[in-house]
Amino acid sequence: MEQLLVEEAIRILIADDELAQMRALCDTLSQYGYETVGCSSGEAALRLMQAAESGGQRFQLLLADLMMPGLDGIAVVQAARAIDADLACVIMTGEGSIGSAVQAMQVGALDYVLKPFRVSAILPVLARALETRKLRIMNASLELRLREHAVQLVRINEELQAARLQADRANEAKSAFLSNMSHELRTPLNAILGFSQILSSEQLPSTAAQKKQFAGNILQASRHLLRLINDILDLAKVESGALTLEPEQVPLAHVLQECRTLVDPLARLRGVEMRMAVPEQASVTADRVRLKQVLINLLSNAIKYNRDHGSVTVHCTEIDTERLRVSVQDTGAGLSEAQLAAMFQPFNRLGQEGGTQEGTGLGLVMTRHLVEKMGGELGVVSTPGLGSTFWLALPGCLD
Ligand SMILES: Nc1ncnc2c1ncn2[C@@H]1O[C@H](COP(=O)(O)OP(=O)(O)OP(=O)(O)O)[C@@H](O)[C@H]1O
Ligand SMILES: [Mg+2]
User: Fold this and answer.
1) What is the pLDDT of residue 104?
2) From the alpha carbon of 302, which atom of ligand 1 is closest?
3) Taking every annotated instance into account, which residue ranges of this chain make up the domain Response regulatory (predicted)?
Protein backbone atom coordinates (compact mmCIF):
# COMPACT_ATOMS: atom_id res chain seq x y z
CA MET A 1 0.00 0.00 0.00
CA GLU A 2 1.30 3.41 -0.91
CA GLN A 3 1.65 5.87 1.88
CA LEU A 4 1.42 9.59 1.40
CA LEU A 5 4.07 11.30 3.46
CA VAL A 6 3.43 14.97 4.09
CA GLU A 7 6.52 16.54 5.48
CA GLU A 8 5.83 19.44 7.73
CA ALA A 9 7.85 22.60 7.07
CA ILE A 10 10.47 23.32 9.70
CA ARG A 11 9.61 26.45 11.69
CA ILE A 12 12.43 28.80 12.59
CA LEU A 13 12.12 31.76 14.93
CA ILE A 14 14.62 34.54 14.30
CA ALA A 15 15.30 37.23 16.93
CA ASP A 16 17.58 40.11 15.92
CA ASP A 17 17.35 43.78 16.79
CA GLU A 18 19.00 44.70 13.48
CA LEU A 19 15.82 44.67 11.44
CA ALA A 20 17.40 44.66 7.98
CA GLN A 21 19.50 41.63 8.88
CA MET A 22 16.54 39.81 10.47
CA ARG A 23 14.37 40.30 7.37
CA ALA A 24 17.14 39.28 5.01
CA LEU A 25 17.65 36.11 7.02
CA CYS A 26 13.93 35.35 7.01
CA ASP A 27 13.76 35.72 3.26
CA THR A 28 16.88 33.71 2.57
CA LEU A 29 15.89 30.82 4.78
CA SER A 30 12.33 30.68 3.37
CA GLN A 31 13.90 30.20 -0.04
CA TYR A 32 15.44 27.03 1.33
CA GLY A 33 12.06 25.63 2.42
CA TYR A 34 12.07 26.79 6.03
CA GLU A 35 9.06 28.56 7.52
CA THR A 36 10.44 31.63 9.23
CA VAL A 37 9.05 34.08 11.76
CA GLY A 38 11.12 37.13 12.68
CA CYS A 39 11.10 39.53 15.59
CA SER A 40 13.32 42.33 16.83
CA SER A 41 13.76 41.54 20.55
CA GLY A 42 14.23 38.68 22.99
CA GLU A 43 10.95 39.53 24.73
CA ALA A 44 9.02 39.38 21.43
CA ALA A 45 10.67 36.04 20.65
CA LEU A 46 9.48 34.54 23.94
CA ARG A 47 5.96 35.85 23.37
CA LEU A 48 5.90 34.28 19.91
CA MET A 49 7.16 31.00 21.35
CA GLN A 50 4.50 30.95 24.03
CA ALA A 51 1.77 31.65 21.48
CA ALA A 52 3.13 28.97 19.16
CA GLU A 53 3.32 26.49 22.02
CA SER A 54 -0.31 27.01 23.06
CA GLY A 55 -1.43 27.08 19.41
CA GLY A 56 0.19 23.70 18.84
CA GLN A 57 2.56 25.10 16.20
CA ARG A 58 5.90 24.78 17.88
CA PHE A 59 9.14 26.19 16.55
CA GLN A 60 11.86 23.65 15.95
CA LEU A 61 14.70 26.15 15.92
CA LEU A 62 15.53 29.51 17.45
CA LEU A 63 18.13 31.72 15.84
CA ALA A 64 18.92 34.47 18.38
CA ASP A 65 21.26 37.41 18.14
CA LEU A 66 23.68 37.46 21.06
CA MET A 67 23.69 41.20 21.66
CA MET A 68 20.20 42.68 21.97
CA PRO A 69 18.89 45.42 24.20
CA GLY A 70 16.70 43.97 26.95
CA LEU A 71 16.93 40.20 26.96
CA ASP A 72 20.14 39.20 25.26
CA GLY A 73 20.73 35.97 23.33
CA ILE A 74 21.86 33.97 26.38
CA ALA A 75 18.77 34.94 28.40
CA VAL A 76 16.47 34.20 25.46
CA VAL A 77 17.98 30.74 24.90
CA GLN A 78 17.59 29.93 28.58
CA ALA A 79 13.98 31.13 28.77
CA ALA A 80 13.03 29.57 25.41
CA ARG A 81 14.34 26.15 26.47
CA ALA A 82 12.33 26.45 29.64
CA ILE A 83 9.22 26.80 27.46
CA ASP A 84 10.21 24.00 25.06
CA ALA A 85 13.05 21.76 26.13
CA ASP A 86 13.22 20.23 22.62
CA LEU A 87 13.92 23.56 20.92
CA ALA A 88 17.21 23.73 18.97
CA CYS A 89 18.93 27.08 19.62
CA VAL A 90 21.64 28.71 17.55
CA ILE A 91 23.30 31.98 18.54
CA MET A 92 24.31 34.68 16.07
CA THR A 93 27.38 36.59 17.10
CA GLY A 94 30.03 39.01 15.85
CA GLU A 95 33.66 38.00 15.57
CA GLY A 96 34.63 39.70 18.85
CA SER A 97 32.19 37.89 21.17
CA ILE A 98 32.87 34.20 20.63
CA GLY A 99 33.45 33.84 24.38
CA SER A 100 29.83 34.84 25.05
CA ALA A 101 28.66 32.48 22.32
CA VAL A 102 30.34 29.63 24.22
CA GLN A 103 28.54 30.83 27.32
CA ALA A 104 25.27 30.63 25.36
CA MET A 105 26.08 27.04 24.47
CA GLN A 106 26.56 26.30 28.13
CA VAL A 107 22.94 27.30 28.79
CA GLY A 108 21.64 25.13 25.98
CA ALA A 109 22.45 26.63 22.56
CA LEU A 110 23.64 23.92 20.17
CA ASP A 111 25.90 26.05 17.97
CA TYR A 112 26.72 29.59 16.87
CA VAL A 113 27.13 31.38 13.55
CA LEU A 114 29.39 34.32 12.91
CA LYS A 115 28.12 37.60 11.52
CA PRO A 116 28.10 38.70 8.81
CA PHE A 117 27.03 35.31 7.47
CA ARG A 118 27.04 33.59 4.20
CA VAL A 119 24.20 31.20 3.40
CA SER A 120 26.67 28.44 2.62
CA ALA A 121 27.99 28.73 6.19
CA ILE A 122 24.68 29.05 8.01
CA LEU A 123 22.76 26.21 6.31
CA PRO A 124 24.96 23.34 7.55
CA VAL A 125 24.87 24.78 11.10
CA LEU A 126 21.07 24.84 11.03
CA ALA A 127 20.89 21.32 9.56
CA ARG A 128 23.22 20.03 12.26
CA ALA A 129 21.27 21.72 15.03
CA LEU A 130 17.99 20.29 13.70
CA GLU A 131 19.55 16.83 13.43
CA THR A 132 20.76 17.10 17.03
CA ARG A 133 17.27 18.11 18.09
CA LYS A 134 15.81 15.06 16.36
CA LEU A 135 18.35 12.80 18.04
CA ARG A 136 17.62 14.37 21.41
CA ILE A 137 13.89 13.73 20.99
CA MET A 138 14.51 10.17 19.87
CA ASN A 139 16.84 9.66 22.80
CA ALA A 140 14.26 10.98 25.20
CA SER A 141 11.59 8.66 23.83
CA LEU A 142 13.99 5.71 23.97
CA GLU A 143 14.84 6.60 27.52
CA LEU A 144 11.15 6.76 28.37
CA ARG A 145 10.57 3.35 26.82
CA LEU A 146 13.55 1.99 28.66
CA ARG A 147 12.20 3.35 31.90
CA GLU A 148 8.78 1.81 31.15
CA HIS A 149 10.48 -1.51 30.43
CA ALA A 150 12.38 -1.27 33.67
CA VAL A 151 9.14 -0.65 35.57
CA GLN A 152 7.56 -3.59 33.75
CA LEU A 153 10.53 -5.78 34.60
CA VAL A 154 10.30 -4.86 38.25
CA ARG A 155 6.59 -5.73 38.22
CA ILE A 156 7.16 -9.06 36.46
CA ASN A 157 9.91 -9.82 38.93
CA GLU A 158 7.60 -9.09 41.83
CA GLU A 159 4.90 -11.31 40.33
CA LEU A 160 7.42 -14.10 39.83
CA GLN A 161 8.59 -13.78 43.39
CA ALA A 162 5.02 -13.87 44.68
CA ALA A 163 4.31 -16.97 42.57
CA ARG A 164 7.46 -18.64 43.88
CA LEU A 165 6.52 -17.79 47.44
CA GLN A 166 3.08 -19.27 46.87
CA ALA A 167 4.60 -22.41 45.34
CA ASP A 168 7.00 -22.68 48.29
CA ARG A 169 4.14 -22.36 50.72
CA ALA A 170 2.11 -24.98 48.86
CA ASN A 171 5.15 -27.23 48.93
CA GLU A 172 5.60 -26.73 52.65
CA ALA A 173 1.93 -27.47 53.21
CA LYS A 174 2.26 -30.67 51.17
CA SER A 175 5.34 -31.74 53.14
CA ALA A 176 3.59 -31.03 56.42
CA PHE A 177 0.56 -32.99 55.18
CA LEU A 178 2.71 -35.98 54.21
CA SER A 179 4.60 -36.06 57.49
CA ASN A 180 1.35 -35.74 59.47
CA MET A 181 -0.21 -38.41 57.31
CA SER A 182 2.54 -40.94 57.92
CA HIS A 183 2.31 -40.26 61.64
CA GLU A 184 -1.47 -40.69 61.62
CA LEU A 185 -1.26 -43.91 59.61
CA ARG A 186 1.45 -45.32 61.81
CA THR A 187 -0.52 -44.89 65.05
CA PRO A 188 -3.36 -47.37 64.30
CA LEU A 189 -0.98 -49.63 62.40
CA ASN A 190 1.29 -49.89 65.44
CA ALA A 191 -1.73 -50.72 67.59
CA ILE A 192 -2.71 -53.50 65.16
CA LEU A 193 0.85 -54.85 65.13
CA GLY A 194 1.22 -54.65 68.90
CA PHE A 195 -2.02 -56.42 69.79
CA SER A 196 -1.51 -59.06 67.05
CA GLN A 197 1.96 -59.80 68.42
CA ILE A 198 0.55 -60.30 71.91
CA LEU A 199 -2.18 -62.56 70.57
CA SER A 200 0.23 -64.71 68.57
CA SER A 201 2.95 -64.84 71.22
CA GLU A 202 3.63 -67.99 73.22
CA GLN A 203 5.53 -66.01 75.84
CA LEU A 204 2.70 -63.59 76.57
CA PRO A 205 -0.20 -65.75 77.69
CA SER A 206 -3.54 -63.98 77.91
CA THR A 207 -6.94 -64.89 79.20
CA ALA A 208 -9.90 -65.42 76.90
CA ALA A 209 -11.38 -62.11 78.06
CA GLN A 210 -8.12 -60.31 77.30
CA LYS A 211 -7.93 -61.99 73.87
CA LYS A 212 -11.38 -60.71 73.13
CA GLN A 213 -10.40 -57.22 74.24
CA PHE A 214 -7.21 -57.23 72.14
CA ALA A 215 -9.12 -58.45 69.09
CA GLY A 216 -11.59 -55.62 69.70
CA ASN A 217 -8.67 -53.15 69.81
CA ILE A 218 -7.32 -54.53 66.54
CA LEU A 219 -10.74 -54.20 64.95
CA GLN A 220 -11.11 -50.62 66.13
CA ALA A 221 -7.62 -49.63 64.95
CA SER A 222 -8.24 -51.31 61.58
CA ARG A 223 -11.49 -49.44 61.10
CA HIS A 224 -9.75 -46.18 61.97
CA LEU A 225 -6.95 -46.98 59.52
CA LEU A 226 -9.44 -47.75 56.78
CA ARG A 227 -11.26 -44.49 57.42
CA LEU A 228 -8.02 -42.57 57.35
CA ILE A 229 -7.01 -44.10 54.04
CA ASN A 230 -10.44 -43.49 52.54
CA ASP A 231 -10.48 -39.88 53.74
CA ILE A 232 -6.97 -39.22 52.43
CA LEU A 233 -7.85 -40.70 49.05
CA ASP A 234 -11.03 -38.65 48.95
CA LEU A 235 -9.15 -35.47 49.82
CA ALA A 236 -6.44 -36.19 47.25
CA LYS A 237 -9.15 -36.63 44.65
CA VAL A 238 -10.70 -33.26 45.45
CA GLU A 239 -7.36 -31.46 45.65
CA SER A 240 -6.13 -32.87 42.34
CA GLY A 241 -9.31 -31.67 40.66
CA ALA A 242 -10.25 -35.24 39.69
CA LEU A 243 -13.61 -34.88 41.41
CA THR A 244 -16.37 -33.87 39.05
CA LEU A 245 -19.44 -32.23 40.49
CA GLU A 246 -22.93 -32.28 39.10
CA PRO A 247 -24.66 -29.13 40.27
CA GLU A 248 -28.44 -29.21 40.42
CA GLN A 249 -31.29 -27.54 42.27
CA VAL A 250 -31.40 -29.36 45.61
CA PRO A 251 -34.34 -29.04 48.04
CA LEU A 252 -32.55 -28.23 51.29
CA ALA A 253 -35.13 -29.43 53.84
CA HIS A 254 -35.39 -32.76 52.08
CA VAL A 255 -31.64 -33.36 51.95
CA LEU A 256 -31.29 -32.30 55.57
CA GLN A 257 -33.93 -34.86 56.52
CA GLU A 258 -31.90 -37.59 54.79
CA CYS A 259 -28.76 -36.47 56.64
CA ARG A 260 -30.64 -36.40 59.90
CA THR A 261 -31.68 -40.04 59.50
CA LEU A 262 -28.00 -40.91 59.23
CA VAL A 263 -26.79 -38.95 62.24
CA ASP A 264 -29.78 -39.56 64.52
CA PRO A 265 -28.33 -42.74 66.09
CA LEU A 266 -25.24 -40.73 67.09
CA ALA A 267 -27.43 -37.94 68.51
CA ARG A 268 -29.54 -40.39 70.50
CA LEU A 269 -26.43 -41.96 71.96
CA ARG A 270 -25.44 -38.57 73.42
CA GLY A 271 -29.00 -37.45 74.16
CA VAL A 272 -28.53 -34.52 71.78
CA GLU A 273 -31.71 -32.92 70.47
CA MET A 274 -31.83 -32.15 66.72
CA ARG A 275 -33.81 -29.10 65.55
CA MET A 276 -34.29 -28.32 61.88
CA ALA A 277 -35.58 -24.81 61.15
CA VAL A 278 -35.37 -24.79 57.37
CA PRO A 279 -38.22 -23.49 55.15
CA GLU A 280 -39.78 -26.23 53.03
CA GLN A 281 -39.22 -24.27 49.79
CA ALA A 282 -35.54 -23.45 50.34
CA SER A 283 -33.23 -24.80 47.68
CA VAL A 284 -29.55 -24.51 46.80
CA THR A 285 -27.53 -25.15 43.67
CA ALA A 286 -25.10 -27.91 44.56
CA ASP A 287 -23.95 -31.45 43.86
CA ARG A 288 -26.47 -33.44 45.84
CA VAL A 289 -24.13 -36.22 47.02
CA ARG A 290 -21.36 -33.81 48.02
CA LEU A 291 -23.80 -31.45 49.72
CA LYS A 292 -24.96 -34.38 51.85
CA GLN A 293 -21.35 -35.19 52.67
CA VAL A 294 -20.81 -31.58 53.79
CA LEU A 295 -23.94 -31.47 55.94
CA ILE A 296 -23.23 -34.86 57.53
CA ASN A 297 -19.71 -33.68 58.41
CA LEU A 298 -21.03 -30.55 60.09
CA LEU A 299 -23.92 -32.31 61.82
CA SER A 300 -21.76 -35.13 63.14
CA ASN A 301 -19.20 -32.63 64.46
CA ALA A 302 -21.97 -30.64 66.13
CA ILE A 303 -23.14 -33.86 67.85
CA LYS A 304 -19.68 -35.28 68.61
CA TYR A 305 -18.32 -32.10 70.17
CA ASN A 306 -21.56 -31.21 71.97
CA ARG A 307 -22.27 -31.79 75.64
CA ASP A 308 -24.52 -34.68 76.67
CA HIS A 309 -28.19 -33.67 76.29
CA GLY A 310 -27.22 -30.57 74.34
CA SER A 311 -28.86 -29.51 71.11
CA VAL A 312 -28.06 -28.92 67.45
CA THR A 313 -30.09 -26.38 65.47
CA VAL A 314 -30.00 -25.92 61.71
CA HIS A 315 -31.07 -22.54 60.37
CA CYS A 316 -31.35 -21.23 56.86
CA THR A 317 -31.34 -17.52 56.01
CA GLU A 318 -31.14 -15.41 52.90
CA ILE A 319 -27.82 -13.57 52.34
CA ASP A 320 -29.12 -11.83 49.22
CA THR A 321 -31.47 -12.75 46.39
CA GLU A 322 -29.02 -15.32 45.07
CA ARG A 323 -27.40 -16.87 48.12
CA LEU A 324 -28.44 -18.76 51.22
CA ARG A 325 -26.65 -19.31 54.49
CA VAL A 326 -27.12 -22.66 56.19
CA SER A 327 -25.87 -22.69 59.77
CA VAL A 328 -25.36 -25.58 62.14
CA GLN A 329 -25.39 -24.34 65.71
CA ASP A 330 -24.38 -26.49 68.67
CA THR A 331 -24.28 -26.15 72.46
CA GLY A 332 -20.82 -27.68 72.86
CA ALA A 333 -17.72 -26.32 74.54
CA GLY A 334 -17.04 -23.87 71.73
CA LEU A 335 -13.62 -23.01 70.38
CA SER A 336 -10.95 -20.63 71.64
CA GLU A 337 -9.20 -18.02 69.46
CA ALA A 338 -6.17 -20.32 69.21
CA GLN A 339 -8.35 -23.27 68.16
CA LEU A 340 -10.13 -21.14 65.56
CA ALA A 341 -6.77 -20.03 64.15
CA ALA A 342 -5.70 -23.66 63.73
CA MET A 343 -9.01 -24.75 62.23
CA PHE A 344 -9.05 -26.40 58.77
CA GLN A 345 -5.53 -27.82 59.14
CA PRO A 346 -5.34 -31.48 58.03
CA PHE A 347 -5.07 -33.95 60.92
CA ASN A 348 -5.32 -31.16 63.50
CA ARG A 349 -7.95 -32.32 65.97
CA LEU A 350 -7.57 -29.22 68.13
CA GLY A 351 -6.98 -31.10 71.37
CA GLN A 352 -9.50 -33.92 70.78
CA GLU A 353 -6.72 -36.45 70.08
CA GLY A 354 -7.06 -38.03 73.51
CA GLY A 355 -10.81 -37.44 73.73
CA THR A 356 -13.64 -39.93 73.57
CA GLN A 357 -14.74 -38.88 70.08
CA GLU A 358 -13.14 -40.69 67.18
CA GLY A 359 -11.97 -38.75 64.17
CA THR A 360 -9.21 -38.23 61.66
CA GLY A 361 -9.06 -34.42 61.66
CA LEU A 362 -9.78 -34.36 57.92
CA GLY A 363 -13.53 -33.79 57.96
CA LEU A 364 -13.51 -29.99 57.94
CA VAL A 365 -10.64 -29.73 55.45
CA MET A 366 -12.62 -31.88 53.08
CA THR A 367 -15.85 -30.02 53.84
CA ARG A 368 -14.28 -26.68 53.05
CA HIS A 369 -12.81 -27.96 49.78
CA LEU A 370 -16.18 -29.31 48.72
CA VAL A 371 -18.09 -26.14 49.62
CA GLU A 372 -15.60 -23.99 47.73
CA LYS A 373 -15.74 -26.30 44.71
CA MET A 374 -19.50 -25.81 44.70
CA GLY A 375 -18.96 -22.04 44.54
CA GLY A 376 -19.70 -21.49 48.21
CA GLU A 377 -17.98 -20.49 51.40
CA LEU A 378 -17.55 -22.15 54.79
CA GLY A 379 -17.03 -20.31 58.06
CA VAL A 380 -17.34 -20.62 61.80
CA VAL A 381 -18.21 -18.42 64.75
CA SER A 382 -17.79 -19.70 68.26
CA THR A 383 -18.09 -18.61 71.86
CA PRO A 384 -16.09 -20.69 74.35
CA GLY A 385 -18.45 -22.23 76.89
CA LEU A 386 -21.58 -21.58 74.77
CA GLY A 387 -21.04 -23.43 71.52
CA SER A 388 -20.13 -23.02 67.88
CA THR A 389 -21.96 -22.23 64.67
CA PHE A 390 -20.54 -23.56 61.43
CA TRP A 391 -22.15 -21.91 58.41
CA LEU A 392 -21.99 -22.41 54.70
CA ALA A 393 -23.04 -19.98 52.01
CA LEU A 394 -24.25 -21.44 48.72
CA PRO A 395 -26.07 -20.19 45.64
CA GLY A 396 -29.79 -20.65 46.32
CA CYS A 397 -33.08 -19.07 47.33
CA LEU A 398 -35.76 -19.39 50.00
CA ASP A 399 -38.73 -19.88 47.66
N1 LIG B 1 -18.86 -28.18 66.30
C2 LIG B 1 -17.65 -28.23 66.89
N3 LIG B 1 -17.47 -27.82 68.16
C4 LIG B 1 -16.26 -27.88 68.74
N5 LIG B 1 -15.17 -28.32 68.13
C6 LIG B 1 -15.28 -28.74 66.85
C7 LIG B 1 -16.51 -28.73 66.16
N8 LIG B 1 -16.31 -29.18 64.91
C9 LIG B 1 -14.99 -29.49 64.84
N10 LIG B 1 -14.37 -29.23 65.99
C11 LIG B 1 -12.93 -29.40 66.29
O12 LIG B 1 -12.25 -29.37 65.08
C13 LIG B 1 -11.47 -30.57 64.90
C14 LIG B 1 -11.40 -30.89 63.44
O15 LIG B 1 -12.67 -31.27 62.99
P16 LIG B 1 -12.81 -32.27 61.76
O17 LIG B 1 -14.23 -32.48 61.50
O18 LIG B 1 -11.95 -31.77 60.68
O19 LIG B 1 -12.10 -33.57 62.29
P20 LIG B 1 -12.61 -34.67 63.31
O21 LIG B 1 -14.03 -34.47 63.64
O22 LIG B 1 -11.64 -34.67 64.41
O23 LIG B 1 -12.40 -35.96 62.45
P24 LIG B 1 -13.23 -36.42 61.18
O25 LIG B 1 -12.24 -36.45 60.09
O26 LIG B 1 -13.74 -37.73 61.56
O27 LIG B 1 -14.32 -35.43 60.96
C28 LIG B 1 -12.16 -31.59 65.73
O29 LIG B 1 -11.27 -32.60 66.13
C30 LIG B 1 -12.64 -30.75 66.92
O31 LIG B 1 -11.60 -30.56 67.85
MG1 LIG C 1 -15.43 -34.22 61.98
Assistant:
1) 83
2) 1
3) 11-130
pLDDT band at 3 (very low <50, low <70, confident <90, very high): very low
User: Model confidence over 89-130: pLDDT tens digits?
Assistant: 999 988 677 778 788 888 889 999 988 878 888 999 999 999
- 366 C-alpha to center of ligand 2: Å? 10
From the CA of 305, which ligand is nearest? 1
Domain 163-239 has CATH 1.10.287.130: yes
Which protein residues are within 6 Å of ligand 1, measured from CB?
Answer: 231, 301-302, 305, 330, 332, 335, 349-350, 352, 359-365, 388
Cα(382) to centroid of ligand 2, in Å? Answer: 16
Report the number of secondary-structure helices (H) and strands (E) in the chain: 10, 12
Fold of 247-397: Heat Shock Protein 90 (3.30.565)
330 CA closest ligand 1 atom index? 1
How far is the C-alpha of 77 from the C-alpha of 65, rounded, in Å?
10
- 37 in Cβ contact with 57 (< 8 Å): no
* Class level of CATH domain 11-117: alpha beta
Summarised one tens digit per residue, pLDDT across range 213-260 is 999 999 999 999 999 999 999 988 888 888 889 999 999 999 999 999
DSSP letters spanning 149-160: HHHHHHHHHHHH
Contacts of 275 (CB under 8 A, 6+ apart): 311, 312, 313, 314
User: Across the chain, which distance is largest between two alpha carbons, in Å?
Assistant: 133
Give the model's pLDDT for residue 7: 61
CATH 1.10.287.130 maps onto the chain at 163-239
Q: What is the pLDDT of residue 5?
A: 47
Q: Where in the chain is the domain with CATH 3.40.50.2300?
A: 11-117
For CATH 3.30.565.10, the residue range(s) in the chain are 247-397
Q: What is the Cα–Cα distance from 152 to 318, expressed in whole angstroms?
A: 45
